[in-house]
Amino acid sequence: MVLSSSGLTTTQPLFSFGLISDVQYADIPDGRSFLGVPRYYRHSILVLQRAVKEWNTHQKHKFVINFGDIVDGFCPKDQSLGAVQKVVDEFEMFRGGPVYHMIGNHCLYNLPRSKLLPLLKIQSLDGRAYYDFSPVPEYRFVVLDGYDISAIGWPQDHPKSLEAMKILREKNPNENKNSPTGMEGLERRFLMFNGGIGREQMEWLDGVLLEATKKKQKVVVCCHLPLDAGAASEKGLLWNYDEVMNLIHRYNCVKVCLAGHYHKGGYSIDSHGIHHRIIEAALECPLDTNAFGHIDAYHDRLSLVGTDRMKSTDMHFYPTS
Ligand SMILES: Nc1ccn([C@@H]2O[C@H](COP(=O)(O)O)[C@@H](O)[C@H]2O)c(=O)n1
Ligand SMILES: O=P(O)(O)OC[C@H](O)CO
């Protein structure tokens, strides 16, 4: 406890970290999403630069998490490598500690996993992009690879690609597998720009949650793709979000799930009291506006302090016995 200037006692966070999502940088003129939402491809890297400057000014953040989609799919392919490197270099200007990246669909439109993962410093076996880390003994972060089963990013004849195409053929009747036309409700998540968690990753997640439970750690799950329909459009959900959440709900250790992809951002608390916070996209910030923030982590809550378009959210943990 410390005494604030107002004389009231306040509790210091255990640690803090910076966060940003969907930078989707490209050296191309402004454009729009399929549904007409403006996208500012060149301005987004300025948002990132301002974020890093702010995080460095604070001098208290232990690390940064980037929620994926570092470069946009419209980036000319002969510029992909340079563009990803350029954005990574901006992140590297953060002086407080490591930057944890995750992959999104737009990353995979630009580069194969074999090139992408070393650039993003994701230690990988066989192209896997899931990992965990524990910044303090009380907390563990799990970073999921939402494009583990995906029709993008793996060679076309790779078993994971074939499995993804089978799912899309069964679930999505459209020739354009990015189109949800004629699909109803939650079924609308079966789009090519989404993906799923494979069996091995599920088993790995189970093991991490078991270990975290034994260590009495609070877990924050991070994934480019949202895991709760209350916080995002069903068109943006992880294909097997339901299986992943059923597994998570078997434990009491997961307190918060953070994601990107759904550019508008969102927030919900699910049936088990887990907070789902979808991070607003840097790409959709008009000139001189921002969408980045930091999270202060306490024993009993995460407090997201957002800038401009990123809303602030206090996430108090549901009491568990
Ligand atoms: N209702 C929709 C939405 C999207 N698509 C296809 O997905 C691509 C990516 O969409 P963005 O929102 O990221 O622009 C888009 O180019 C369309 O091919 C769709 O078919 N129907
Ligand atoms: O990642 P994008 O740019 O294809 O956009 C995905 C949608 O916003 C998901 O809701």
From TrEMBL:
Domain Calcineurin-like phosphoesterase intervals: 17-264
Protein EC: 3.6.1.13, 3.6.1.16, 3.6.1.53
- Keywords linked to the UniProt accession: Hydrolase, Metal-binding, Zinc
InterPro entries, alphabetically?
Calcineurin-like_PHP (IPR004843), Metallo-depent_PP-like (IPR029052), MPP_ADPRM (IPR041869)
Q: How does it assemble?
A: Monomer.
What protein family is recorded? Belongs to the ADPRibase-Mn family.
Protein's recorded name: Manganese-dependent ADP-ribose/CDP-alcohol diphosphatase
Native source organism of the sequence: Vigna radiata var. radiata (Mung bean)
The record lists the lineage as:
Eukaryota, Viridiplantae, Streptophyta, Embryophyta, Tracheophyta
Q: Per UniProt, what is the name of the gene that codes for the protein in this document?
A: LOC106761426
